[in-house]
Amino acid sequence: MSIKSMDELRKIREEHQNKVNLRQSGNNQEDRIEILIGMATCGISSGARETLNAFVEEIGKQGLNNAKVITVGCIGYCHSEPTVQVNMPGQKPVLYGTVKKDKVPDIVNKHIIGGQPVENLILKVDFERA
Amino acid sequence: MATRSNILVCGGTGCLASESDKVIKNLELIIKARGYENEARVIRTGCFGFCEKGPIVKIEPDNVFYVMVGPKDAKDIVDEHIIKGRTVDRLLYREPKANEIINRQEDMPFYKKQLRVALRNCGLINPEDILEYIAFGGYEALGKALTSMTRDQVVDEVKRSGLRGRGGGGFPTGIKWEVTKKQDDNEKFIICNADEGDPGAFMDRSILEGDPHSVIEAMAIGGYAIGASKGIIYIRAEYPLAISRLNTALNQAREQGLLGKNIFGSDFSFDINIKYGAGAFVCGEETALINSCTGKRGEPNYKPPYPAEKGYWGHPTCVNNVETFANIPQIITRGADWFASIGTEKSKGTKVFALAGKVKNVGLVEVPMGITFREIIFDIGGGIQGGRKFKAVQTGGPSGGVITEQYLDTPIDYDSLISIGSMMGSGGMIVMDETDNMVKIAKFYLEFTMDESCGRCTPCRIGTKRMYEILDKITSGKGTMADIDALKQLAYMVKGSSLCGLGQTAPNPVISTLKHFWEEYMAFIKDVDNPRGEGRHIAKNKIKFATEK
Ligand SMILES: Cc1cc2nc3c(=O)[nH]c(=O)nc-3n(C[C@H](O)[C@H](O)[C@H](O)COP(=O)(O)O)c2cc1C
């Protein structure tokens, strides 16, 4: 196979984007969307790994190159695992509870793409403890 | 299932020497054993630059930077970080001054003041996979040049960028390309100088190991601009890893049609051969390099004619350094104005330095021109080891001079370094502290140039030998003032009458140490009782700092 035009090169670039899109290149750190998944033992046992993979897949499917999915440790809401925190640039972080993998498309479509948090999944943080 | 984690492990020569290949193997085995091979991928990258703390492992997208990772740490990285999302704190970098832990690469003082252009892909991509290079925009510069720019436009872009040769001389690259392009000959050549003979320097090696395609792409762009259809990479045989990655990269580029006939459907055809050097320092000099390429003895010729006029087999030949080339694709894609916005008035862009010697953070750093020595040595380099005092820094390797404390705030560029008695050289930067004896340092460099003198011209062959003998006599405490006079006289004679840059610059370490450290020479002459001459500089009482062990 031989690349014979800029278009062919760009096509290859796009096809292989998924190989490298987890890695940061350059300085576009500021407008990144972060999706933090609690991956402690209780999280994993309630399906955090599946949720995590669902996020990665959904984001890949939608071509959201500026969103990254990050695993984090326990944040202490074992009753509501799996927990997911979404950080949109310039907005207050939103914490979701009991995010099974079937909830993932909703969060991606409504919140990450649409900008509207999915109210019924939001975990009400108890300020006395927090 | 899509990959959610990339584990980047440094596969540069430095980290490989501290077993990063075993780290990679263990990571892969454990990931497989835990059943996570679809979710986490291990990537062997080029050099991250922070060699002092190697092997380096970086986890993406989490952006966590682990240092000094051993094969045994692979288990914790997988079980804790990849599976449970908990950073392995003991592997994080601890900033010694404030004694605080730092997770992210960009927050580490070592990286804060760096700006990566030539090294942009080192530590980011797998150098053995052309598709990763393409995924980060690779070969778009070549495509742009071939499909939408004339040869003159390419030359003009490089000229306007202000890029100067990174191999030592600092000659404007665009002008060299223009001169070669203008020659009337239907056979021309473009050569990449990857001889890197400067002791302690490893910038070019790291670029070739970490991002070989950037050089290949740039050579093709250069070939198009000057009208050459053949390129040669002259690389020292002591760089086996760089050679193997280059070969892999060349083959992959050929497979994709990015080297070969009618690249990007244009009428431009280009391919590259590798020639191996046997490691003689003088073979880095361009005319000696060309002689060596043609199978002759690696000895320099008188210039003019310059290689651009009459080079490889008598044809116009453009010789550029590895790092010079590594800047080219960025200049073409991002434009000359972007490149020219970095750096000082007469030295544009960045420079890679191999920071070594008595500095805390030994490694490879890329900084914008105009940064000061103080910033490189104390901010990026973390200061002097063991809380000792800074004495001098040598740039330009055996061809350069020492720079003393009073010049630490000089903005670094080609011209400022010459004005303070040194030179940019290829980027070696060796830091010396109060325990180093400068006469011995000068002797060390002279021994190197004496050994490496090819013997073709008398001043260099005999002059460096005599200078070395005098320095040996002085450092063994038997020298007299007459020896110092003879040394000085010889230094200027060798400098003024040698055939090539080797001899013309060999006396620089002597001249600059005589100028800045006269008292250390005198100590050897006057203190016959104390032949090491170092007695005067060792404090009687040593103050221990709390941070010292
Ligand atoms: C003794 C001596 C050794 C040299 N060694 C090297 C070297 O190892 N690598 C290099 O790129 N240039 C070296 N040079 C400089 C080359 O002669 C030449 O100027 C350079 O390759 C041109 O490329 P540039 O314009 O991109 O810097 C050396 C010069 C001299 C005099």
Please give a structural write-up.
Chain A has one domain: 3-Layer(aba) Sandwich (Glutaredoxin). Chain A has 5 helices and 4 strands. By secondary structure, chain A is of the alpha+beta class. The longest helix of chain A has 15 residues, at 48-62. Chain A has helices at 6-15, 17-20, 41-45, 48-62, 104-113, and strands spanning 33-38, 67-72, 84-87, 94-96. Chain B has 22 helices and 15 strands. In chain B, helix 17 (438-452) runs antiparallel to helix 18. Chain B folds into 4 domains: 5-112, Glutaredoxin (3-Layer(aba) Sandwich); 130-340, 3-Layer(aba) Sandwich (Rossmann fold); 351-433, Ubiquitin-like (UB roll), CATH 3.10.20; 438-542, de novo design (two linked rop proteins), CATH 1.20.1440.230. Chain B starts with a strand and ends in a 23-residue tail after the last helix. A 5-stranded mixed beta sheet of chain B has the order 12-11-15-13-14. Chain B is of the alpha/beta class and 549 residues long. Chain A binds chain B through residues 1-6, 9-10, 12-13, 16-20, 22-25, 29, 37-41, 44, 52-53, 56-57, 60, 68-73, and chain B through 1-6, 8, 39, 60-63, 81-87, 106, 120, 124-125, 129, 131-132, 134-137, 139-140, 143-144, 147, 255-258, 260, 262, 264-265. Flavin mononucleotide is lined by residues 165-169, 171, 173, 193, 195-197, 281-282, 284-286, 319-321, 324, 426, 500-502 of chain B.
